[in-house]
Design a protein that fits this description.
Layout (H helix, E strand, L loop, with lengths): L1 H12 L2 H58 L4 E2 L4 E3 L13 E11 L5 E12 L4 E11 L1
Parallel strand pairs: 1-3
Antiparallel strand pairs: 2-3, 3-4, 4-5
Length: 143
């Protein structure tokens, strides 16, 4: 009787390893997909940080150039509230700023005591394809 009973148990268990193997494959595939998404998100975050830092330093460099123009060259800008771009500053050929540009706007504000105040806005933009970062730096110089 036990000999007849054994083959029926074996027939009932056939295919159970296939179900377990499919379950393991599905679980490992889900883990691999979620890990891939996490790594992709991390790479995008790092690229965003890099371009953001480049845009900040580009705008900071533009501000330094604008202040230099006001202090050393006696630059006269458009009277407030107009914008007058300061030209001649190109950082796109510098190492690390290949896809970056800077625009510097200048406005002159006449103060009641007869002095002039120069309001400068430097905008640094770095284009990394799908990531575009922009920073603005503002300063006022009173002479």
């Amino acid at each position: 009787m036990s000999l007849n009973h054994m083959p029926s148990k074996r027939k009932q268990q056939q295919g159970s390893m296939l179900v377990i193997a499919l379950f393991i494959i599905v679980v490992i595939s889900l883990l691999a997909a979620s890990l891939s998404r996490i790594l992709s998100s991390t790479a995008d975050s790092v690229a965003n940080e890099v371009y953001s830092a480049k845009a900040y330093y580009a705008s900071d460099s533009g501000m330094e150039y604008g202040i230099y123009q006001v202090l050393s060259n006696g630059l006269v800008c458009t009277a407030f509230p107009g914008n007058d771009p300061i030209t001649g500053f190109d950082i796109s050929t510098e190492v690390g700023f290949e896809n970056c540009s800077v625009s510097i706007d200048c406005q002159t504000i006449d103060l009641p005591d007869g002095r002039s105040q120069y309001y400068l806005v430097s905008t640094g933009t770095c284009d990394g394809g799908k990531i575009v970062a922009e920073h603005k730096v503002e300063a006022a110089v009173t002479l």
